[in-house]
Amino acid sequence: MRKVIACEWTSLDGVVQSPAYRDEDPSGGFRHGGWHPRYFDAASMKWVVANVTQAGGFLLGRRTYDTFAAHWPNASAEEQQLARPLNSLPKYVASRTLKEPLAWQNSSLLQGDIAEAVAALKREAGADLLTIGSTELLHALMAHDLVDEFRFMIDPLILGGGKRFFRDDGRLAALRLVASEVTSTGAILATYAREAR
């Protein structure tokens, strides 16, 4: 059985909103868009490339799919290490509004109940499924205990507000640290696995 792995960029206070671009997601009056890129270094880029190239496919929410589909098919020559797997591997998209066929190559909509569809994908042979961003989708999967591993790049800053990865929902989830590394920018690359349920 393959795993579902969540890969996220987060601030020290758990905010994941609008990491890459200033105007990526200003909802709720969020004013700190684009907070993440200055924390990249060679180690974190190697980590990102490894996560993407080792995946067997990607689980994406509609907003992340729209952002990626607009960028990665036209990626620059310098971005091809990431673009190649993102463009070529299967992408499974959770959306109530998109209709097939999806424009980005090798993309398909998850059909029916999302939890059941992802559970079926986990039972298939192949490499693990990686979810990038897509926090609404991940919240739905976590509610059904379908996320097996969390990989965070935790940046050394406090944003003081914005959309957080973990919700205040009262759910207890024990994790085990699998790997960690501190980058030259002070960011922490941490992998946590779910403890046996």
Instruction: Give me the Rg, rounded.
Output: 16 Å
CATH class bucket of the domain at 4-57 and 114-194: Alpha Beta
CATH topology descriptor of the domain at 4-57 and 114-194: Dihydrofolate Reductase, subunit A
The CATH architecture designation of the domain at 4-57 and 114-194 is 3-Layer(aba) Sandwich
Query: Residue-averaged pLDDT, rounded?
Result: 95
Number of strands: 8
CATH superfamily of the domain at 4-57 and 114-194: Dihydrofolate Reductase, subunit A
Low-confidence spans = none
Percentage of residues in helical conformation:
25-40%
Number of helices: 5
Order of helices and strands: EHEHHEEHEHEEE
What is the spatial order of strands in the main beta sheet? 4-3-2-5-1-6-8-7
Which class of secondary structure composition applies to the elements?
A: alpha/beta
Shape: globular
Distance between the termini: 16 Å
Report the β-strand fraction as a percent range. Answer: 15-25%
Largest sheet: 8 strands, mixed
What structural keywords apply?
5 helices; about 200 residues; about 25% helix; 8 strands; Dihydrofolate Reductase, subunit A; alpha/beta
Model description:
This protein is α/β, with parallel strands linked by helices. The protein has a domain at 4-57 and 114-194: Dihydrofolate Reductase, subunit A. The chain has helices at 42-53, 62-71, 80-88, 114-123, 135-143; strands spanning 4-11, 57-61, 91-94, 107-109, 129-132, 149-155, 175-182, 188-194. It has an 8-stranded mixed β-sheet. Helix 1 (42-53) packs parallel to helix 3. The longest helix is centred in the N-terminal third of the chain and has 12 residues, at 42-53. It starts with a strand and ends with a strand.
